[in-house]
């Protein structure tokens, strides 16, 4: 016979309602009691009926996770961390990819909001106005986009960009280019502002090239402009753009890092395996995924459960120096 919630309650020495809350609203159950109930349930092989629980609590125990481009190596570590964090809290995650298309992003949110308790938006391309309208339909937490009145998790890429500028300036570079990302990208805007400010402080001339497609094709397409600009260092929107740029420069007889130093953003796997290995701004993607899930579940629980007010969490970035940057040539 199938194990029931009453069997778990009897073996745990608690009321049936306590077992129910352990699975439907664990934050309302004493930690020691919750641990005991979960251990007993595991030992007995009890599995709660999600459909029945949804009817009782009004919660699906599903979350939506929408990313701009699942093929971009920046996103998989964030997705994996978010899924693991949600699983620990008895939630499932539906992952969707917008392919950088704001109309598709809006359509996905409108579809998912009927099936999930909340949505994580990662690097959204939607306008603030549309997000404001959609937030009335489902709780949101946004990653890498600052929005007034919404809980957000920001990876401080501006901090990393400032350190990157200091790095190339310290290597003697005085003419630098910035390859920006898509128009309207929060990350691109943060990198541009920080690079503009820091180059001005250090007396480095900055040439901005973009917007660019956030892929290796974007870097390839920008290679001619970089080669013609006379710069000796380039900071790119992400690692994919940087790797495309390196290939495009190589095709034009420009050596990296001998002639031009190149820096990416993300510390993705392709940059670790490339030749030369890519100097890059490290992004705390896994930490952001875990933090975003916790903040979304707190938002879903609401003020009655002691949820924190809407907030912005900023995670630090850093610079990982590899082979694609070197001291400027004296020739």
TrEMBL record:
One of its GO terms (molecular function) is DNA-binding transcription factor activity. InterPro entries: HTH_LacI (IPR000843), LacI/GalR-like_sensor (IPR046335), Lambda_DNA-bd_dom_sf (IPR010982), Peripla_BP_I (IPR028082). Gene3D superfamilies: 3.40.50.2300, lambda repressor-like DNA-binding domains (1.10.260.40). Keywords: DNA-binding, Repressor, Transcription, Transcription regulation. Residues 3-57 form the HTH lacI-type domain. Pfam families: LacI (PF00356), Peripla_BP_3 (PF13377). PROSITE patterns: HTH_LACI_2. This is LacI family transcriptional regulator. It comes from Nonomuraea dietziae.
